[in-house]
Amino acid sequence: MGGFSIEMTGIILQARMSSTRLPGKILKPIGKKNILDHIFFRLSRLKHPVKIVLATSDNVADDVVEEYCRKKNIACFRGSENNVLERYYMCARQYSMDAIVRLTGDNPFPDIEEIDNLIKIFTENKADFAHSFSALPIGVGAEIFTFQSLEKSYLHGRESHHLEHVNEYMIENPQIFKTLHLTVSVEKHQPGVRLTIDTQEDYERACFIVENAKNEYITTQEAIQLCSQFA
Fold it and tell me: Is the C-alpha dihedral spanning 52, 56, 60, 61 positive or negative?
């Protein structure tokens, strides 16, 4: 499947207000910024040229997310609430993306240096799918895939988990998709550390990290270190 030229690399950030355990978390404050603010602040440091789109649902509860995007001058796409695979496919098609980096709105500390590295190895090796989940703390990694891979998943992924999780069909079919795994430094290789926000404890941990960080841009190494101090 690989071998084509990538002209448009996109980042699709999936985010919606409804959350089972922590409703409205994407706009909850962590220090002086909400979660989405933290993500976009970090993405502004990316070296690769990308088109960034926030993909939310067409549920009325997410009107506030579209309004957030309008105020911040961020591209917004609205699609199916539960069929996230379809939302990604329609969004990528609308913006003519050749490669798509997938991020989620409950991860305020994406490692931008490693996203750049991920895009680099993905492009140089003409991969179909690449990710850094197994290397980095939970909530820090990312994945990238070709539009063709996304389309194949959309056309053939029929199980409920395929629709809910964009990458599942690719992960389950390594014989179809040329897959790469990013390797990172020993200091960052802490896949057991939680830097995602799914629970109230996760939220309090993220607040602790932001409040105690030395710089506005928090490195993965510093976040890991602060995690160990959180009681």
Answer: negative
Report residue 7: phi and psi, to 5°: -100, -35
CATH no. for residue 73? 3.90.550.10
Mean pLDDT of 196-210: 97
Residue range of the domain that includes 56: 9-229
| 135: in domain | yes
Among residues 81, 106, 82, 75, the alpha carbon closest in space to that of 11 is found at 75
CB atoms within 10 A of CB 225: 15
Number of domains forming the structure of the chain: 1
Assigned domain for 1 exists: no
- 49-72 pLDDT, tens digit each: 999 999 999 999 999 999 999 999
**pLDDT tens digits, residue range 76-126?**
999 999 999 999 999 999 999 999 999 999 999 999 999 999 999 999 999
